[in-house]
Amino acid sequence: MAKAEKKSFSNGSNSKGLSLNGPKQVAATNSVFKFNTQLGQHILKNPLVAQGIVDKANIRPSDTVLEVGPGTGNLTMRILQKARKVIASEMDPRMAAELTKRVQGKPEQKKLDIILGDFIKQDLPYFDICISNTPYQISSPLVFKLLNQPKPPRVAILMFQREFALRLLARPGDSLYCRLSVNVQMWANVTHIMKVGRNNFRPPPQVESSVVRIEVKNPRPNIDFNEWDGLLRICFVRKNRTISAGFKNKSVIEILEKNYKTYLATIAAENNQMFVEEPDNNMTDLIKEKVNLVLDQTGFSDQRAGKLDQVDFLKLLYAFHKVGIHFA
């Protein structure tokens, strides 16, 4: 990952740059900044919502808090009142400079570390809590970056566009249930905290928002993420089609064939044996036979991904691994 450049101002483009100081403060800020709505910059003008976000994080005096997209720093200032340290990641240099001004010469200055750059490309230091008014473009990458931290945060309080938040929460059979739903719920517990109407922002975004709490499971499931995600990618290509339909795709068979050859070569090497490849046609037919066998034996051949839960997908993954079929 690219090492983020630390400067005396912040990183991560603020999704909806938060304002907690009422209409006068918002108006003053707007006179300085022309907010980039393409980056999701919308000021949250309702101080009760902002305070609610901070309160739901249950920040301890010893905590280090990562804030993604602090904007002009209105939410940041509230976090600084409770945390030992705040690491603020901001994409927009103008926002970063404004945040620097707000703490300059104040006690909070020593507690704030501002990083300017692309949050997704940053190597992150240790932090206990993440709070984010999330830029819509990085919603999914942000969630998975947090889940994949070597030491994930104790809790993340994140604001997203309403539909994205509902995808995180969706259950089998729901219209918004998707690969994202299954993936996130495997690695974390997700709960809905509050709805935030579009009129709470200036300028109002085109969609409603929601705040969710994400708590990474501890201990983590003993599953290889790439294997798990590889299976889900195939199953959810068309979530309302049968599982077997996804495995009939030629490119899917080619990937499984390549992985199977790697698997056989690894087994041979572990036993000090030479691996001899089968002719391509024979190998392709073998993979198709194994796939059909697994789908028939598990009873998932005619099932649809949108109706299956975590346990179902775990059974499917285990059955494929038993016959040497891997997805990463």
From TrEMBL:
The alphabetized UniProt keywords are: Methyltransferase, RNA-binding, rRNA processing, S-adenosyl-L-methionine, Transferase
**UniProt keyword RNA-binding, yes or no:** yes
Q: From start to end residue, where is composition biased (Low complexity)?
A: 9-22
**E.C. code:** 2.1.1.-
* The keyword Methyltransferase is annotated on this UniProt entry: yes
List the residue ranges of the region (Disordered): 1-22
Q: Kindly list the GO molecular function terms attached to this UniProt entry.
A: 18S rRNA (adenine(1779)-N(6)/adenine(1780)-N(6))-dimethyltransferase activity; RNA binding
Q: Which residues form the Ribosomal RNA adenine methylase transferase N-terminal domain?
A: 49-218
GO cellular component terms, A-Z? nucleolus; preribosome, small subunit precursor
- One GO-annotated biological process of the protein: maturation of SSU-rRNA from tricistronic rRNA transcript (SSU-rRNA, 5.8S rRNA, LSU-rRNA)
**Positions with a binding annotation for S-adenosyl-L-methionine:** H42, L44, G69, E90, D118, N133
- EC class (word): transferase
Which Pfam families does the UniProt record give?
A: RrnaAD
Q: Which reaction does it catalyse?
A: adenosine(1779)/adenosine(1780) in 18S rRNA + 4 S-adenosyl-L-methionine = N(6)-dimethyladenosine(1779)/N(6)-dimethyladenosine(1780) in 18S rRNA + 4 S-adenosyl-L-homocysteine + 4 H(+)
InterPro entries with a match to the protein in the record: KsgA/Erm, rRNA_Ade_Mease_Trfase_CS, rRNA_Ade_methylase_Trfase_N, rRNA_adenine_dimethylase, SAM-dependent_MTases_sf
Outline what the protein does: Specifically dimethylates two adjacent adenosines in the loop of a conserved hairpin near the 3'-end of 18S rRNA in the 40S particle.
Record-stated family: Belongs to the class I-like SAM-binding methyltransferase superfamily. rRNA adenine N(6)-methyltransferase family.
Please give the name of this protein.
Answer: rRNA adenine N(6)-methyltransferase
